[in-house]
UniProtKB/TrEMBL annotation:
Family: Belongs to the LysR transcriptional regulatory family.
Location of the HTH lysR-type domain: 16-73
Transmembrane spans: none
Presence of keyword Ribonucleoprotein: no
Database matches in Pfam families: HTH_1, LysR_substrate
Entry keyword annotation includes Transcription regulation: yes
Protein name per the record: LysR family transcriptional regulator
GO molecular function, one term: sequence-specific DNA binding
Swiss-Prot/TrEMBL keywords: DNA-binding, Transcription, Transcription regulation
InterPro entries, per the entry: LysR-type_TF_proteobact-type (IPR058163), LysR_HTH_N (IPR000847), LysR_subst-bd (IPR005119), WH-like_DNA-bd_sf (IPR036388), WH_DNA-bd_sf (IPR036390)
Domain of life assignment: Bacteria
Protein's GO biological process: DNA-templated transcription
Length: 316
């Protein structure tokens, strides 16, 4: 049985004390007043005041603070170990009540690559909020690898091969087929490449990898033969979501994931696809979340809207 009346130091804990403990857990887990404030939708000064009040009441320092870092003291770690399981139990109890609502509510924080935001989430946001107006989405784009639990996210989006095995995952897209595109204007001045070996003679838009900062080599495969071709050109970017616009503008050839948008641009005569017989495929995007936790109703709503139709939940 869950008791909302919590006893501490021999007395009943008041509402403001519960809020102070909530602030302490958020700051201790985020190791940042700024991040904790964003998580709780409060100001950093409000959190700082709550933590000072809690420390004054308990008569012990719970957090070590410097200009750059925040970390729990030994007393803070001991308190954290005791109250986090209780907070988790309370959160699960509240979430079980949420299931009885006609419309889920709550905030869902999701970390994803920028291309996933562009391809999957942005086109479907109007439909999502039309169906679930009480759910708040916080979408953070990051092309590097992120510990979603450590960073306080409810879920993440990555290709399947990059997801930890103990996560549950829902497919958002089919596997990707990579394609090379150029504009009709570009090909008025340059011959269409017949094989990847022709690419060094073309203006190819470079993509700088987030990890390591090296330039990505364009990969191809045909008849069991796989190639990684170094390319060069007038422009290098670190956001694959920019590639389509760059190609349409005729700046150079781009290497990007094939999509319905590209098919439409080809059909409308704004892009030309080349080297299609050398296309290579990669695993698609999955939304993943800790498999051992109760699935909040708001996250379930996200899954219902953004999952690929007719695809289930996979335990990796």
């Amino acid at each position: 049985m869950i008791y909302w009346l919590i006893f501490i130091n021999g007395g009943a804990m008041r509402t403001n004390e519960f809020g102070e403990l909530t602030a302490f857990v958020a700051v201790a887990e985020e190791k940042s007043f700024r991040k904790a404030a964003a998580r709780l939708n409060l100001t950093a000064s409000t959190l700082s005041h709550a933590l000072r009040a809690l420390e004054d009441r308990l008569g012990v320092r719970l957090l070590n603070r410097t200009t750059r870092t925040v970390s729990p003291t030994q007393a803070g770690l001991a308190l954290l170990a005791e109250i986090v399981p209780a907070f988790s139990t309370i959160a699960n109890a509240v979430e079980s009540v949420n299931a009885f609502r006609e419309s889920p509510r709550g905030r869902v924080r999701i970390n994803m690559p920028r291309i996933a935001a562009d391809m999957v989430f942005l086109p479907q946001l109007p439909a999502f909020f039309g169906q679930y107006p009480d759910v708040q989405l916080e979408l953070t784009t990051n092309d590097g690898f992120v510990d979603i639990i450590g960073e306080g996210f409810d879920a993440g989006v990555r290709i399947r091969d990059d997801i930890q095995q103990d996560m549950s995952a829902v497919r958002l897209t089919e596997d990707f087929h990579v394609a090379v595109y150029g504009s009709p204007g570009y090909f008025e001045q340059h011959a269409i490449p017949q094989t990847p070996a022709d690419l060094p003679h073309h203006a190819c838009i470079g993509l700088r990898e987030i990890s390591g900062g090296s330039l990505y080599r364009w990969e191809f495969e045909k008849d069991g033969r796989r190639l990684a071709v170094p390319v060069s050109g007038p422009l290098t970017v670190d956001n694959i979501g920019m590639m389509t616009r760059i190609a349409v503008d005729g700046i150079g050839l781009v290497y990007t994931a094939h999509s319905r948008e590209h098919d439409e641009l080809v059909a409308n005569g704004r892009l030309i696809r080349v080297l299609a017989d050398w296309s290579i495929s990669y695993p698609g995007f999955f939304l993943y979340y800790p498999g051992h936790r109760q699935l909040p109703a708001a996250l379930r709503a996200v899954i219902d809207v953004f999952r690929l139709p007719s695809k289930g939940t996979d335990t990796l």
